[in-house]
TrEMBL record:
GO terms for molecular function: ATP binding; ATP hydrolysis activity. Transmembrane segments: none annotated. Belongs to the ABC transporter superfamily. Gene3D superfamilies: P-loop containing nucleotide triphosphate hydrolases. Residues 19-250 form the ABC transporter domain. This is ABC transporter related protein. Keywords: ATP-binding, Nucleotide-binding, Transport. Pfam families: ABC_tran. The keyword RNA-binding does not apply.
Length: 323
């Protein structure tokens, strides 16, 4: 059986974490949309919050931002308890939740100016500089005068991120930022996230696109049916699944016996040969035992599961691997 890395409770001091939750739960009637969640998001990380649609990702984000009150549990943003410390934390947090929404007949610049004017912490005397700096950061300064309705999907997503960056942010929370984008738009958002992270901003990004998460995230959390089923650095989560040894041979019965005697588990026939979990048995020892036992070895490989294989094993559901 494949062994998977379990989700871990918070162990680092919460001052070292951009986001931390303990027992965070949200029920709608008898259904738990989020159940006993323990997120650990280190400062400076790019944290990929993964799960199939309906697994509880957006509900979690809304609780983190104080938009939805939890049924149980606690959460902190940048060391501040939410919702009690929301006024202290949220000015340092930028967010994009459930897609951008702007006035279609206003330009990109005019939309951001309206948002900036609504921020009570923003100095109106420097509004133009902030808006232009945010537009420049996302590569939209040259098209700032263009009406929003004429923007492409990628441009709209980048404008939404610009809105989240009107003021300096320590934490950026992005809910499905590449949803509906073509490959070019997806790459634009990915490069922007990488740029923000290189400047020290913590980025918390929810997604169901494995290829994108794999390329840009340093840490992962995997949701399934409202529960966190795996969490840690990308290498830790990927390393939580056991490799598989595969042998191509015309003598599957004898190969199965020898591999089982060596201590491999889950040994079973496959088309053209046998496979099993090595459990630390060295590949050269497996091959030597097979040859000494008179088994003709046509090919021998040890492979680690792909990120898609891992998440299917964790959640029982497929993920979108397209970018």
């Amino acid at each position: 059986m494949t062994e998977l890395l379990p989700a871990q409770p918070a162990s680092a001091p919460e001052r070292d974490l951009a986001i931390a939750t303990r027992g965070l739960t949200k029920r709608f009637g008898s259904r738990a949309a989020v159940d006993d969640l323990g997120l650990v998001v280190p400062r400076g990380s790019v944290y990929g919050f993964l799960g199939p649609n309906g697994s509880g990702k957006t509900t979690t984000i809304r609780m983190l931002l104080g938009l939805v009150r939890p049924s149980a549990g606690t959460s902190t943003l940048l060391g501040q308890s939410i919702p009690a410390g929301a006024q202290a934390a949220l000015p340092h947090v930028g967010s994009l939740v459930e897609g951008p929404a702007f006035h279609p007949y206003l330009s990109g610049r005019a939309n951001l100016q309206r948002l900036d004017a609504a921020d009570l912490t923003a100095d109106p005397r420097t509004s133009r500089q902030r808006v232009d700096a945010a537009l420049d950061r996302v590569g939209l300064l040259a098209t700032a005068g263009k009406r929003y309705r004429a923007y492409s999907l990628g441009m709209r997503q980048r404008l939404a991120i610009a809105a989240a960056l009107l003021m300096p942010r320590e934490l950026l929370v992005l809910d499905e930022p590449t949803n509906g984008l073509d490959p070019q738009g997806t790459r634009e958002v990915r490069h922007l996230v990488a740029s923000l992270a290189s400047d020290g901003t913590t980025v918390f990004v929810s997604s169901h696109l494995l290829s994108e998460v794999e390329q840009m995230c340093t840490h992962l959390g995997v949701m399934s049916d409202g529960r966190l089923v795996a969490q840690g650095s990308t290498s830790e989560v990927r390393g939580g699944a056991a490799p598989t040894a595969r042998i191509l041979t015309d003598q599957p019965t004898e190969a199965t016996r020898i591999m089982s005697e060596l201590g491999l588990t889950g040994v079973e026939a496959m088309p053209g040969g046998v496979r099993g979990t090595p459990n630390g048995v060295a590949p050269e020892k497996i091959v030597a035992a097979l040859v000494q036992g008179g088994v003709g070895v046509k090919e021998f490989t040890v492979t680690s599961p792909s990120l898609e294989d891992l998440f299917v094993a964790l959640t029982g559901e497929g993920f979108d691997v397209s970018g």
